[in-house]
Amino acid sequence: MKYSNATNYALHTMVHLMRLPQTSTIGVQELAEMQKLSPTYLSKILTKLTKAGLIESMTGVKGGYKIARLKSRISFLDVINAIEGDTHLFDCSIHHGEGCLIENAMRQAEENMKVELDNTLISDIVAMAETAQHRKRI
Amino acid sequence: MKYSNATNYALHTMVHLMRLPQTSTIGVQELAEMQKLSPTYLSKILTKLTKAGLIESMTGVKGGYKIARLKSRISFLDVINAIEGDTHLFDCSIHHGEGCLIENAMRQAEENMKVELDNTLISDIVAMAETAQHRKRI
DNA sequence: TTAATTAGAGACAACAAGAGTCTTTGATAT
DNA sequence: ATATCAAAGACTCTTGTTGTCTCTAATTAA
């Protein structure tokens, strides 16, 4: 069990976008180049992020993408849900006797896990990256 | 993203086995019947649980399966790892600039999630199931 | 208004993994 | 010996992921 590659690409893209000045946009070509991906494939991922309201898109010349929300408000879980949908970790389709009981226990564990992901902010990664880069300059 | 059906079957099987008296064994046929599965398919799952040391198998007449460890020592994560292997939720294959940093952040989130699953004991579910059954008898 | 540039949408193919079956082998109690 | 059980592995089928290609729609600049 692992998250899809698309989710990883999305997480990385969010980091790139966050490191951009708030006003400027960046195109798919450039973002795809950074991750060694085809622009068409990455655009599918970006569209999902756009529909989830995490980033904004501008078509036309000088168009591109930028972060939509307040940077400090975007968590891992936001990005994961945007790409994978609101899936259940445990999909208990087996109903026998006390089936619901088992399902409930699994759902509880799932909830606790999601809280962890919701507390992990993308902006923290960006901050760490920038600190590391700053150290390098010194 | 979700755990495989096999993991769900394994979790359910563990519950069934735990509700058995410590000394007695149960065969694949009966376990498969409980979950409406084919015995051959379930046996593949049971073999994984055996290799992981969570259950014990006895071949031959009067053979079958039973819990191997102390019941209170088996967590969700034990079962999940037995079936899915020790997989990583986030598989960061994209290396660019501060790639390692992003990967580390993801790994940290992953660790926190796994702690949750490791704290969720199968025996708790069994206890709840038995309490529910006891109430029904009254 | 036209041309260039950008995102969006959807069809499509290739590949990988999951789910499940079948058959054969090997161990054990009676 | 024989019936009964688990173990192992080859095999198929289905599903989902990954990725490409093409066409459309919107926006800016000239």
Automatic annotation (TrEMBL), chains A, B:
Record Pfam families: Rrf2 (PF02082)
Molecular functions per Gene Ontology: DNA-binding transcription factor activity
Top-rank taxon: Bacteria
Annotated Gene Ontology cellular component terms: cytosol
SUPFAM superfamilies: Winged helix' DNA-binding domain
PANTHER family, sorted: RRF2 FAMILY PROTEIN, WINGED HELIX-TURN-HELIX TRANSCRIPTIONAL REGULATOR, RRF2 FAMILY
Protein name: Rrf2 family protein
Native source organism of the sequence: Planococcus koreensis
Upper taxonomic lineage: Bacteria, Bacillati, Bacillota, Bacilli, Bacillales
